[in-house]
Amino acid sequence: MITIMLVDDHPVVREGLRGMLEAEDDLTVVGEAGSGDEAIALDRVKQPDVVLMDLRMPGLDGVGAIHAILKETPARRIVVLTTYETDADILRAVEAGASGYLLKDASRTELAGAIRAAHRGETVLAPSVAGKLVHRMRNPTPASPLSAREVEVLRLVAKGRTNAEIGRELHIGEATVKTHLLRVFSKLGVSDRTAAVTTALDRQLLG
Q1: pLDDT of 28
Q2: Most buried residue, 5, 42, 141, 160, by most Cβ within 10 Å?
């Protein structure tokens, strides 16, 4: 029996997934979490074979949870299950160590097969996701270095400062802080503050 933990901030999604998966003879859901932080705590208790992880959740997102879980248990198999398939989302999840990346329109057969494959140690990607990764590898985007000011702003974001606090500390307007952050997001290929900090730390851009 393959044990599974579901991580999604929508209870109705978890309920639907549980029903789909437990209709399979060899799959059982042993836990559900509604956030990245809950997932980390529950993973320690339940020790599932495979984690189905949503990406965008309140608080700690899916990529942050993947990093934390795999740091504690490197052998854990984590499959992303999301509605998002942007290049930035895919790359962040794969770089974090996800064993697979599926979209929520997957059928029960596809989902069950992916879980079994991940459990065997295989990498599972939705066809559209695989295509994007191949394209990205063949046509890499040159990394744009962050300016000194952008690094300063991002360092303060990493410390939990708000835009207003950053503006006061650097003696610039809040609108200017937002402009710097938008440029950082664009250069790093991300869409939010958490992802920007995570990516910058991974690439050792913050010193």
Answers
A1: 98
A2: 5
Say how far apart CA 152 and CA 41 lie, in whole Å: 33
Regions of the chain where pLDDT drops below 50: none
Burial degree of 143 (CB within 10 A; 0-12, 13-18, 19+): exposed
CB 56 within 8 A of CB 80: no
Residues 69, 60: contact at Cβ < 8 Å?
Answer: no
Q: How many CB atoms lie within 10 A of CB 171?
A: 6
Asked if 14 contacts 8 with a C-beta cutoff of 8 angstroms, the reply is yes
80-113 burial, b for 16+ CB within 10 Å, e for fewer? bbbebeeebbbbbbbebbbbbbbbeebeeeebbe
pTM: 0.68
- The gap from C-alpha 57 to its chain's centroid, in whole angstroms, comes to 10
